[in-house]
Write a structure and sequence with these properties.
There is one protein chain. The protein is mostly helical. It has two domains: 66 residues, Fe,Mn superoxide dismutase (SOD) domain (Helix Hairpins, Orthogonal Bundle); 104 residues, minor pseudopilin epsh fold (3-Layer(bab) Sandwich). It has a three-stranded antiparallel beta sheet, with helices on both faces. α1 packs antiparallel against α3. The longest helix is centred in the N-terminal third of the chain and has 25 residues. The chain is globular. The mean pLDDT is 96. The structure holds manganese (II) ion. The site of manganese (II) ion has 7 residues, from α1.
Length: 208
């Protein structure tokens, strides 16, 4: 598994086979999502970063948007964000991983009352979000778990938060299989959370 903080220009290989998430995310959808959509973000980020001599460390750039020259800001946010958000998203996807018994599960229960209540709140946040964007579970600046949405390719690391879980709400994530049915896609996604990785991200975030 690649390290998300060290992501450069390259399109990272998916950490699983294209058909590994069937039937919830099918092979064709994954090939297009990764090989076309994500690749375009990675390529365009490279273009912007090279043009403005920003280096290739997308994590550091997104974390310090205030240091980006204004003429490159939109490109870094949209393409760097798109590149990083997708690379992060792939790492938290895996079929049939149990959430019980992990530190992050205990924290979720403490913060939201129960796993079910958390799932309900996250589902509401994602299904009622208007337009293109993402729903995230982050460790916020106070060190608390929080469910947030971001528009377009905006990334929570730009506002000092530590993402530990996310869901892509762009239509390109679900149009092939689910057509316009975002709710069905969200429901299916609950079977695909790699709680081992989410727990790793959580443990790292609370140490910061
Ligand atoms: Mn996407």
């Amino acid at each position: 598994m690649y390290k998300i903080e060290e992501l450069g220009f390259e399109l990272p290989a998916l950490p699983f086979a294209y058909n590994a998430l069937e039937p919830h995310m099918d092979e064709e959808a994954m090939k297009i999502h990764h090989g076309k959509h994500h690749k375009t973000y990675a390529d365009k980020f490279k273009e912007v970063a090279e043009k403005h001599n920003l280096g290739n460390k997308v994590f550091d750039l997104l974390k310090n948007l205030n240091k980006i020259p204004s003429e490159a800001l939109k490109g870094v946010k949209n393409f760097g964000g798109g590149h990083w958000n997708h690379a992060f998203f792939w790492t938290i996807l895996k079929k049939d991983v149990e959430h019980n018994g992990k530190e992050v599960s205990k924290a979720i229960e403490k913060r939201f009352g129960s796993y079910e209540k958390f799932a309900e709140l996250f589902t509401t946040a994602s299904s009622t979000f208007f337009g293109s964007g993402w729903t995230w579970l982050v460790v916020n600046q106070k060190g608390e778990l929080e469910i947030i949405n971001s528009s377009n390719q905006d990334c929570p690391i730009s506002t000092g938060q530590h993402p530990i879980l996310c869901l892509d709400l762009w239509e390109h994530a679900y149009y092939l299989k689910y057509r316009n049915m975002r709710a069905d896609y969200i429901k299916a996604w609950w079977n695909l959370i790699n709680w081992d990785m989410v727990n790793q991200y959580f443990m790292k975030a609370i140490k910061k």
